[in-house]
Each structure stands twice: as C-alpha cells, then as structure tokens.
Amino acid sequence: MSPPTGVLCLWAVWFVSWIAASAWSRATVAAPPRGAQQLQSVIIYVGFALLTLPTFHLSLGPRLWRLPQGLNWGLVGVAASGFVLAWWARIHLGRDWSWLVTRKQDHRLVDTGPYALVRHPIYTGLIIAASATAIVEAKAPSEIGLVLFVAGLWMKARLEERFLSAELGDAAYDEYVRRTGMILPGL
C-alpha cells in the first residue's frame, strides 16, 4: 500500500463511521433557510473530489514535489490525528451533532473538551487530514481541492456561528466567540 492509498483508506473509514454515527443525533428542531447551505456543500464536495482524485492514478499532471517515503507515511499519521480530533469533538458534542447546520432538540452550547480550544474542532481535524492528504498527493488538483475544501468549511463555520448565535442567544454565544478561536486556537 502506498501513502496516498493509505490516506484514502483513512478517509473511507472516517466517512463510513461518520455516517453510521449519524443515528446518534437528536431530532432537528431548526435549520437555516432552505438553500443556505447548498453553495458551501458543493464547494466542500468538489474540493474533496479534487483532493483525492490523484490517488486513483488519473493523469492529472506532474507531481509538484517528491518527499521521502518515511515522511509521506508520517503525513498519513498526521491525517489520522486529524480524524482522531474530529472524532473526539464529535463524541464530545454527543447527540447535538449534525453534518448540516441545525439546532437539535434540547441543544446546548458545548464549550468544553476540544470546544474549549476552538469553536469548530471537527472542521479543524478535517482540515488537518485534508492538508496532510494534499501534501501526500502532491498534484495541482489536490492543492486546489484543499483550498476549496477549507473555503467550504470556513463558509459553513460562519453560517453555523450566525445561526447558533441567533438560536442559542447572542450573549452566551458572543462570550464563547470572544474566548475561543474559530478553527485555530486564538484565531
């Protein structure tokens, strides 16, 4: 198995387990207006496709760089750590989790665990995994895919913050925003 195949396998395991875990979520009681999430979703999915296409050995241009095999496998480990962070955050969020921006029944502001460091640790973990993937892939489509993937998650995070601020109360959410970074601690 090559490092690109290894990192793609990690994405597959994460995706299947993530979908299976969606059964844990509470019922949705509110969501942004219909269509508010479509653009960011398209950007995320197109970005992900471009990020991972080179693994399928399509002729998508030359490699932009070559890293030693050991370093590439280290990056597979970095991707795995990103998925671990995303799962830690997902488990800590509990039944309030949803892939779409929503408010769940009995939804509460979670500001402990990884959420004490950043407001969107799931996105942080996915960005870590995607960054490692793009470096391992080392092809232009992967780098473009990374930019789109991160842009889509950033757009989603901004929508989520506006929505949750309105749904959970501006004062409590604004205080949380002041003391935590959005994707990185302190930023």
Tell me what you see in this structure.
With 187 residues, this protein is an all-alpha fold. It has a single domain (39-95, 108-187), classed as Four Helix Bundle (Hemerythrin (Met), subunit A). The protein contains 6 helices and 2 strands. A two-stranded antiparallel ribbon has the order 1-2. The radius of gyration is 17 Å and the shape is elongated. The model has no long low-confidence stretch (mean pLDDT 90).
> Tell me, what is the CATH class?
Mainly Alpha
Write down the domain tally.
1
CATH architecture tag = Up-down Bundle
Oligomer: single chain
Q: What is the mean predicted local confidence, pLDDT? A: 90
- Assign the CATH topology: Four Helix Bundle (Hemerythrin (Met), subunit A)
Q: Gyration radius, to the nearest Å?
A: 17 Å
Summed up:
The chain is built from six helices and two strands; from the N terminus they run αβααβααα. It is an all-alpha fold and 187 residues long.
Core attributes:
single chain; 187 residues; mainly alpha; Four Helix Bundle (Hemerythrin (Met), subunit A); two-stranded antiparallel ribbon; 6 helices; 2 strands
Write the layout of secondary structure elements.
Layout: H1 3-21, E1 28-30, H2 38-52, H3 69-93, E2 103-104, H4 121-137, H5 140-168, H6 170-179
Antiparallel strand pairs: 1-2
Helix pairs in contact: 1-3, 1-4, 2-5, 3-4, 4-5, 5-6
